[in-house]
Amino acid sequence: MKSLTNQDIRFATAPMMDWTDRHCRFFHRLMSRRARLYTEMLTTGAVIFGDRDRLLGFDAAERPLALQLGGSDPGELGKAARIAEPYGFDEINLNVGCPSDRVQNGAFGACLMLRPELVADCVKAMKDAVALPITVKCRIGVDDQEPRAALFGVAQRVVAVGCDALVVHARKAWLSGLSPKENRDVPPLDYDLVYELKRAFPDLPIAINGGIVTIDEMRAHLSHVDGVMIGRAAYHEPELLLRVDPELFGEAAPLDDGFAVVEAFIPYVEAQLRRGERLSSMTRHMLGLFAGRPGARAFRRRLACEAVLPGAGVETLLAAVDEVRRATARMAEVANA
Fold it and tell me: Which is nearest to 3 in space by CA: 201, 167, 178, 165?
């Protein structure tokens, strides 16, 4: 059986529906060797009955990579885990936090916070099925649950069946009355409760998620828990990932800046275009790359408008990057005048 260390979960990017696809993950990997990446949530039905190679296939460069599964039937989760294991994932994570209508209709995701015994059954089924680490990503509660009782109730039960790590989004989820987007922002954060959980379970690797946007915030959390997971911050400001290896792991960044990241990404883009992928499928993950720099708006606008056009190729991406280079050069000229 493989196990997880605290270092394994020290930094991760969150699984995000419609965002963290294989193109996004390859792009993010260019900026951090140490980040643990997660797939979008895949339902057990999709894994069991769908196009497995399309859904589960990934580039080896994306590792370390965790697969997130959505489901509430222990037998189906065990079967999906067995199907996924040969693809080479480093971890399988059970979604106990997503509040979307889709998961509510299927009675999984955040709904499972109401059924901690079932969560434990699901974890055990996957532990029995595969040798991979099995982890859980959860909320601190849903609806009118008392957060401490809800979170500790889930944690106690999954620890008892061998859960390898817990990722806690430090907000409640409201299953009615709030949209999935509102559920990411409106319920208040309770980081202290997650810290308390870590004190209560010192041997369980625990990562914290929710509202974390800066390296300084990450460092502060890491003095209380084992890992941090960020979602939209990594997506909207990808260059933040270039600081992860040096500042959280004491290792050199893989590349110097966003320009070098684009250059490193181009061979991948060219290969995908030859396979029939559209340029926009890849560049949509890059829109935040030069956030805060001169020319960033022109870069985003050019990619948003031109990468979607039929036949758009690498030259479109390079032309967008040139907007940033020219704007940066103009600003330097003004500064030196």
Answer: 165
Dihedrals φ, ψ of 128, to 5°?
A: -70, -25
Q: For 139-236, where are the E strands, in sequence order?
A: 165-169, 206-209, 227-230
Name the band, by pLDDT with cuts 50, 70 and 90, for residue 110.
confident
Q: In terms of C-beta density within 10 A (0-12 exposed, 13-18 middle, 19 or more buried), how is residue 315 classed? A: exposed
Tell me the catalytic residues: 98
pLDDT at 105: 61
Match 């999984």 to its residue by tokens. 108
Query: By CB neighbour count within 10 A (0-12 exposed, 13-18 middle, 19+ buried), where does 218 fall?
Result: buried
pTM, entire model? 0.94
Whole-angstrom Cα Rg for the chain? 20
Helix (H, G, I), strand (E, B) or coil at 148: helix
Q: Using one digit for the tens of pLDDT, what is the confidence trace for 164-176? A: 999 999 999 888 7
